[in-house]
Structure formats: structure tokens, C-alpha cells
Amino acid sequence: MAVQTAGQKKGPAVILVLIILVALFFIIKQAMPKKYYYTTDLKCEGCGNVFQQKIASGTAFPIKCPKCGKSAAYRAMKCLDCGEIFTMKPVPVAPGAPEEMMPPEMPKCPKCGSMNLGPITERKKEE
Fold first, then answer.
1. Domains contained in the chain, number
2. Nearest to 70 by CA among 40, 55, 41, 48
3. Is residue 24 one of the residues assigned to a domain?
4. Alpha carbons 81 and 106: distance in angstroms, whole number
């Protein structure tokens, strides 16, 4: 007749707890919202630096400039008609409104008024 010790009974219980913890980890990971990233052109209003950066959707502007370190970089566009590079800084809808709110109008070049806009730098194909 074999005598069971307390350690022999704990083995299956520990394995069961580990399986439950791993399953909970995967369930929680699936429930968390996914972040989507995109590459965009940015221009620092502090130093004028134009650069390309990969950012998460929903990122609040301004972004920190890698050249001067100031949080003054906004999305930038290039007018394909006159070549003007300008920022697309969010404009409050009304005085005192949050900066993230943008009016529902199409962007246009501040220099010539054209709506023929495009990226500043050529996009690299992501593999």
C-alpha cells in the first residue's frame, strides 16, 4: 500500500492553476483594444524641422520634435501646385473648445488656396 504525501496531491492542483492563469492571460489580451499605426509627415512649428514618423491612431498633437525637443510638431502637407509645406494644426470649433476638435472642412493650402495636397516625403513600402 502506497502512502501519499501532501506534495503529491499539490501537483495536479498547481498545474490546473497555471492552466487557468494562462487562459485568463489570453482572454484579457484578446479583449484589449488594438493600436493601429500609420506613417505621417510632421513639421515642428518651433524649429521648422520636417520629418516622418510612425504614430498610433488617436495620438494627441502636438508631438515632440526629435530635433529641438519641443512639443510643437503637427501633421504636415505639401501643396502639389505651389510647393508650400504647412501644418494641419487642429483648429478649435469655438473659443474655449478642446484643441482636438477640428472643423469639418477639407484642408487647403494657406498660400494659394489649392486643395491639391499630398505627402511631403515619398512613402517607403512596408514589408
1. 1
2. 48
3. no
4. 16
